Amino acid sequence: MGHIVADPFVDLAFVQLLLSNEDWLQVVKRQAEVYTSTGDIGESTVTFRTYRAQSKQHVVKTLQRTYSTIDRYLTDELVNEKASRAWKALVTLLASLRLMERAGVGLGELLPEGYGRIEELRVVVDRVIEEKTSRERAEAAAVVMKVLRGLGDEQFLNTVPKLWWLNFVMESEVFEAVFKYHLLASKKELVSGFVKSAEEALSEVKGHVSDISYMEYEVLKALLSRCVELRGQYINKLQNAIIFVKIGRRSVRNYEEWDWFLRDEVLTYFMSMYMAELQELLGLKEKELNISMLLSPRRERGGPASALSTLILMSPIFMQYALEARREAIVTPADIVVSLLRISKAREETGDFVVSVREIAEEIVSFWERRDFLRRLKLYSQNEVTPEALCRKSSFTTSLALIINAGVGGIYVTTERRLELRLPPRMVGFDSLYVRTQQLSSIVQRVWRWEEG
Amino acid sequence: MSQTSCVDAFRRFLEEITGRLRFEDIERRFSRALEENPVFAEIERSGALGKNIIVILGGRGCGKTLAIRYIKYNLKKGDWDFTYISGADLVEKVRAQGSRVFQQLIEEQESKLSQDSGYRVVVAIDDVAEAVEIARDFLQKEVELARKYEGRLRLVLASQSERATAERVMTAELLKVVLPQAPFAEMFFGEEPRRALLDSFRSSYINRKPVTLFRGAAMVNLDAYWSSLRSLDRVKDLAEAIVKFADFYAKNADTSCSEAVERVRRYKLGLAMLALSSIPRVVRDPEARVVIEYRGAEPALNGLGIAELLNRLFADSKVASLADEAEEVYSSLESLQATVDADTVEEVLLKACSAVGYMIPLRDVPVSSIVPLQAPSGAEKPVAGRRKYGPRVNLVEVRVATSDGREERRYIIFHSLKVDKRGYVTSGSVKRLAELVQYGVPSEAEMRYLVVLIPSVKHAKALYKALGFHQIRRKGRDVLPLFINRLSSTERGFVHIVKTGTLSNRKTISHELQEVLYGIVVGTLTLSLKDDADQPRLAYLMLPYVS
Fold first, then answer.
1. What is the DSSP pairing of strand B153-160 with strand A428-430?
2. A16 touches A125 (CB < 8 A)
3. What value does the mean pLDDT take over residues A392-419?
4. What DSSP character marks residue B178?
5. What DSSP state is assigned to residue A151?
6. What proportion of chain A, given as a percentage, has pLDDT over 70?
7. Quick check: A34 and B477 CB within 8 A?
8. On the CB side of B4, how many CA atoms lie within 13 Å of its CA?
C-alpha cells in the first residue's frame, strides 16, 4: 500500500478537489486571514468537514484508472490526514500572501507578483493529473516535467513555490526524513572521516583507484536511504514522493540526478537548518522536523505565532524563489530571527538590547558560513555576499517589515547614529533594532511548542 | 389651490441642481449666501481653510464641487487667484495631448508664483480619483509646489470616496500611496502621513468628525458631517439643517421664495425623520470598512438627498402627510420613558430587515439548517442528549453583491442575553451561547456572525463565561457583543414604538410609515448599537456595499 501514502498524484487529487470549488476557495481565503490573526486554521468549519467527506470519493474517481486498487488502500484515517493537510497547506499558502499584502511588501521579491493567482495553480494541478491518468504507466518524473516545461516563464515562477509548499506539507513525513538526512550530512567530520578511512582501507587491495568524491557520493546516498528508510527499494520511490521539490527547478541542470541534491541542495537543506538552529537556540532537546505538525493551531497568542511560523517555514521557499527568478541570495525572515536569537545568546542578554543592522548582517553571514549556506548560495547566485551588501539589500528590510507587521512584538526599529534604512510600509527610518529578548523568545517558542498553553 | 409661481421656480431650481453639474454651472447657480450653508459654516469654523492642502472627500451627492465653489468664494475675498481642474477633463486632455498637459499646468503656476511675490493662487483639482492612475507624478509635484510656495499656493483636492476600479478603491490609493509618498508629505500630514490620512478617513464617519486638521493640511470628510446628524438624538438639529438648506437653495433660486421655506419649516421634524430612513453604504476596502453616504437607487442623507426630499415634498402630497405622521412619532418619543431589553431589540432588528430588499430574516430556525451538525464521515461521535437539529435561533441572511460581481452571503445570528429579576444573566442563556459556539455557529471564514445582545456592560462577564479562555479571542471577529444600554432614551423609545407598531395614544402606524421606521432602524439605529470598542459592528454587517 505504500505507494498510495507517498504518491504525489494522490496528494494533488486531494488539493484538486479543494481548488475546484469556488465557494470553498473563498472560505479558505478568509480562513487565511483568520489564521494570521487568531491562529485558527478552521478545521472545525463546515466547509472543511464537507470537503473531507467528499474527498475520498473524488480521489478514487480521479485516479481509479491509474491505480486500480486505490479504493482499498485509501483508509479513512489516511483520507482524514491527507484532507486535513491539503486544507492546512492551502490556508498557510494564502496566509503568507495575506501577510505580504498587509505589510505592503514582499510580493515580487520574496514571492512572485502573481503568487495569489490560484487559478494558475488549479490549471497546473488539473494538467498534471490529466497527464498522469491519460496514459498507462506514465512515469511520474516524465509527467511532471512535461507539464512544467509547458509553462511560460512567468507562469512557471508563479506556480512552483506553491507546488513546493504543497509537496512539503502533504508529504511531511518523507520530508522529515530528508531534513534528518541534511542534519546528519551537515556533520562534515563524520562523513569525511568515514570516507577517508574507507578509501584507505580499500587501497590495501591491489589495483584500487582511490576516488574520495565518488565514495562520498555513495556514502551520502546511503545515508539518505537510511534516513528515509528505503529498505532496499529504488531511490526513484523517494524522488516520486518529493517530486515537485526535487524537479521543480530551473536552476538545476540535471534534476534527475542525486548528486546535487546530496551535496548542493538549497531548499530542503535550508529548511532543515533553520528548523534545527531555531530549536537548538530555544534549548529544545528533541527536534521536531515535521512541517504539518508545526502547522497545528496554537492556542495562546495564536495569531502572531501562526504568522511567524508561516514566515519561518516559508523562508527557504523565499530563498529558493529568489535564486530561481533572479539568481540572487536574499535575507529571509528566518535569517533575521535566527541571528537575533543568536546575538542575544552570545551577549547573554536576558533583558532588552539594541543591535545595529550591521551586526545583524554580520551574524547572518557567520551563520551562513558555519551552516554551509554560503558555498551552496554561491553555486546558484551571482552576487557577492558580505555584511555590507546584505544590510543594503531590500530583502533585508522586506523580511524585517514582514516580521514586525505580523504582530510578533519584541522587535522594534530605532535609530542610534543616523537613518540608514527605511522600514516599509510607513518608511520609518532606522539603523538598529531594539529587541526585547523575553517577548521575542516566548513567541518563537510558540512556533515550536504548539501543543501547550 | 394656488401653488404660486415662486414655489414652482424653487422646485425647478431643485430639479436642476440634482443632476450632475459642472463646476461652471455650480458657480453660476450658487452665488448667494454661501456662508449660510451649514456644511460650509462648519468647515469655516474648523479652520481648515487656513491649511495649505485641503483634501475633500465624500460620497456621490454630498457636495464636493459645491465645497470647492465655496472655497473659491471664501478665498476670493483675500485676493486669491483660482484655478479649477476637473479630473475627468484632465484624463481626456492627457489622452489627446499626452503628459505635456501636466507640465504646462505646473509651469503656468510656477511662473506666476515666482514672478510676483504677492501672487496667491488656489489650485482646486476636482474628482482626483478619476485621474489618480495617470496623474500621480503631477499630484506629487503639486504637493511639492505647495511646500515651495507655502502660504501662496493652496491645493484643494476633492475625491469621491467610493470611486473604485476593478481591484482598487482609488480614493484609498490617493490616501495610501500618492499623498503619503509625495515629497515633504510629512510637513503637511505629520510624521506618518499614510496612517494619519487613512485612519482619519476611516474613523471620521463613525466618530462623526467631519474635519481633521494635520500639521499643514486638512481633511474634510463631507459624509462625516452628515453622519453627525444621523442619529435619533439629533433629529432637531437635522431638522434645522434641512430648513437652512431650503433657505440656502431658495436664496440661490431665481426668485427668492419664502413661501417654500415656510412650508419646509412646517414639516421639518417629519422630513428629518424621513431623511434618517436612508441607508448609508460601505466601501469595500480590503483593509477596513469605510462607511459613506451614497446616492444609489435610494436617496442618501446628504445635500443631494435633501434636495430630492424637498422636491418630493412639493411634488407629492403624500410626503407631507407621511412627514406629519413621522413627526407625531418623534414627538411621542420625548415623553415615552420606555425600557427595552435585548429581546425587544432583536425583534425590532428582525422586523426591520424584512423591509430592506437584500436581507431576509429567518425566525426560529434550527441551527442545522445553516451549519450541518455532523459531517457524514466526521470523526466526532454525536453526544447523547443533544437535539437532533440543534438549538433554534433567529437569524438574518444578508446577500450583497461584491465588486467582482459575485454574491456574498452572510448570516447574522442573534442571541440575546436574558436577565433575571435580580439583574443577573440567566444561566440558561449563557449555556445556550456556549452551545452555539460549540456547534460552530459563528465562523468568520464562512461568514456567519453571532451577534450577542447584552443588556449592559456589567453583564459582559457572561460573554466571557460562555466563551471561555480559548474562544474569547473570537470576540470582535465572529462573536460580536452589542450593548443595549448604550442606546439613549430617545432611541429606546423608538425601539419600543417600532416593536409595538402603535403610538402612545393607541394610534396604529400606517404601513408606509412602518417602512420608514424600519429604514431608520437599519440605516441609523444600527450605528448606535456599539460594542465594547465603540465600533458599530452590526452596521458593518448589515449595510450594503457601494454598487
1. unpaired
2. yes
3. 90
4. I
5. S
6. 98
7. yes
8. 10
Q: Determine whether the interchain pair A52/B375 forms a contact, defined as Cβ–Cβ distance below 8 Å.
A: yes
Task: State residue B2's pLDDT score.
Answer: 47
pLDDT at position B403, please? 67
- The most confident of the ranges A32-41, A90-99, B394-403, B496-505 is A90-99
Query: Beta strand pairing status for B392-401 and B407-416?
Result: antiparallel
Cα distances (angstroms) measured from residue B440 to each of A53, B348, B444, B540 = 17, 26, 10, 22
Across the interface, do B375 and A38 touch by the CB < 8 Å criterion?
no
Helix (H) or strand (E) holding A37: helix A22-38
H runs (alpha helix) in B356-421? none
Query: Residue A283 and residue A279: Cα distance in Å, rounded?
Result: 6
Quote the pLDDT of residue A2.
Answer: 53
Question: pTM of the prediction?
Answer: 0.85
Report d(CA B253, CA B9) in Å as an integer: 7
| d(C-alpha B203, C-alpha B491), whole Å | 23
The Cα–Cα gap between A415 and A398 comes to 18
Contact B445 A46 (CB under 8 A): no
Distance in Å, alpha carbon of A302 to nearest chain B alpha carbon: 9
| Dihedral sign, Cα of residue B86, residue B87, residue B92, residue B95 | positive
Q: Which residues contact A329 (CB under 8 A, 6 or more apart)?
A: A319, A322, A323, A377, A380, A381, A383, A385
> pLDDT grade, residue A372 (50/70/90)?
very high
SS3 A276: helix
C-alpha angle A66/A71/A73, rounded to 5°? 100
Q: Do A53 and B377 touch (CB under 8 A)?
A: yes
**Which pairs count as long-range contacts for A65-70, CB under 8 Å and 24+ apart, including other chains?**
A65/A133, A66/A9, A66/A132, A66/A133, A66/A136, A66/A138, A67/A3, A67/A4, A67/A7, A67/A10, A70/A4, A70/A10
Q: Is A302 on the interface with B (CB under 8 A)?
A: yes
- Which ipTM score applies to this complex? 0.80
Q: For A405-444, give the DSSP string.
A: HTT--SEEEE-SSS--EEETTTTEEESEEEEEHHHHHHHH
Q: Would you say B306 and B320 are in contact if contact means Cβ atoms under 8 Å apart?
A: no
Residues in CB range of B316: below 8 A, 6 or more apart:
none
Which residues in chain A have their CB less than 8 angstroms from residue B195's CB?
Answer: 426
**Residues A307-358: tens digit of each pLDDT:** 999 999 999 999 999 999 999 999 999 999 999 999 999 988 788 999 999 9
Q: Which long-range contacts link A259-264 to residues 24+ away (Cβ below 8 Å)?
A: A259/A217, A262/A185, A262/A217, A262/A220, A262/A221, A262/A224, A263/A217, A263/A220, A264/A376, A264/A379
Q: For residues A324 and A160, is the Cβ–Cβ distance under 8 A?
A: yes
Question: In the block, which residue shows the cell 473659491?
Answer: B72
Retrieve residue A272's grid coordinates.
Answer: 532543515
Which of B194, B286, B473 has its CB closest to that of A426?
B194
Residue reference for cell 470611486: B163
Q: How far apart are CA A315 and CA A395, in angstroms?
A: 12
Question: Is cis: bond before A425, omega within 30 of 0?
Answer: yes
Whole-number CA gyration radius for chain A:
22
Cα separation, A59 vs B102, in Å, equals: 59
Identify the structural domains of chain B with CATH numbers, from first to last: 5-225 (3.40.50.300), 232-335 (no CATH), 342-372+387-542 (no CATH)
Q: Give pLDDT, residue A453.
A: 39
Residues B143-195 pLDDT 10s: 999 999 988 999 999 998 887 766 677 888 888 888 988 888 989 998 888 88
CA distance B27 to B22: 9
Q: Please indicate if any CB of chain B lies within 8 Å of the CB of A451.
A: no
Which is nearest to B247 in space by CA: B258, B263, B236? B258
pLDDT exceeds cutoff 90 at A298? no
Dihedral sign for Cα atoms in the order A361, A366, A367, A372: positive
